[in-house]
Amino acid sequence: MARSRGAGAAREHLEVLALALRLFWQGNAHFCKDKSVAVFIDFCCLYQRPRSDEQDALFKTGLQGMHVLYAHQETTVLCLTRVPTRITRGYYVRGWCRFESLISALIKFPSRLLDLGHLDMTRPPPTWNDLVRVCEAQRSPPLTPDAFDAEIDEKDARGEHVLTFTNGKDDRPFVKAKYRTTVDEVLGFRQRLAFQKMGWGDEQARLLAQALPLAKRLTILDLYDNNFGDAALEALAPVLPATMSHMNLGGNRRIGDVGAAALAAALPRLKDLEDLDLSNTGIGDEGARAVLETLPPRVRCIDLRQCLISAGVPHTTILNTIEHVREMRACFCGSEDSRAAAIQTWKARMAEKERERGGRRGSRRIGPAGLLGGDIEPPRLIEPPRLGEDIALPEFDEDLELPDLIAPVGEMTLRDREVLALRRENAALRAEIEELKERRGKKSGCGVM
Is 1 helix (H, G, I), strand (E, B) or coil? Predict the structure, then answer.
């Protein structure tokens, strides 16, 4: 989709759009082979006034379904944000542009929402990948319908609306209703939200906290490598959906013990949580203890690598507070002897608990092997793999089916389950593993089987 308003900008926009479409086709020809590619140019592809009765019916039909084209995760939206100087109304004060850019940013991959206003046509990019690097749009957190309504109704000191419409009387209520419907369909059925490397800080976290209660079926929340601090977790923790099973807060170096304490207060409510990533944060001893002591019973993996945990603390804290975690990923500063001693202490404590319970078998799962009364095994204490170590290759599903390009948003979010994203992530992971195996083989001086 190309997002353009007004006939006055037609020539300038068509030159930019022609370049973008040519590069898109060249860069994606292997995906598009023997397939049709649809291009929707807003304003141009909908009948404008004056319209016949038949054209008016088609226009209204287009309006009813056009939010799917923008909000669908597998469409690419090109925003033509730069307008000629002779045009007084800029892109960002147009109500329709605001609506369409917001719904386009809800769940798309960053490479599928591009701001062509960043292009320098005197030095055009030579490839599609170069264009994507230059034009990736800055995304903001999802805006709640109530907040969007407030934006639409906002007026300046002269009493005039800040966001303008050609036909405000009809367009304002329609856009409000359509935005509310779109957000309900997308976030309400969404099971995974991924906002990695957005550059968001605490203020964006507060906006995200307002929208999270709308994600009633959310199971995976990925906020990796932003600029969140303690204030961000204090805002997010109370509204984290109880349906979540995986949460990634890794790479947010400004999150410390205060933020960890806020998260710890919310953890008992997240009864379905299985995987928690807090790696590469500023969490120290107190924050780690607070989180570990409040982990829900279904948690099987927690990652505290590259945190600010003191030497010797992880062994005692982890093994004395967790009975159900299967994998504990951390960079341990203690010696192998201290690790072995902590594990022996943990086993003795588990055996004592078993005796206190009367030796009931099968009463509680305590580790990867097991049940009390059987072989008692502590959680695996995992460090990052080093060259020369064996690497376990994950299983890949080669039979994943691509989702339909155009599908109702609600059905799409519930059915597709990030199929295309998983395929891309699997391919990237496979390449990384092969590279690591090759480096390991060169270091050892022999081939890798």
Answer: coil
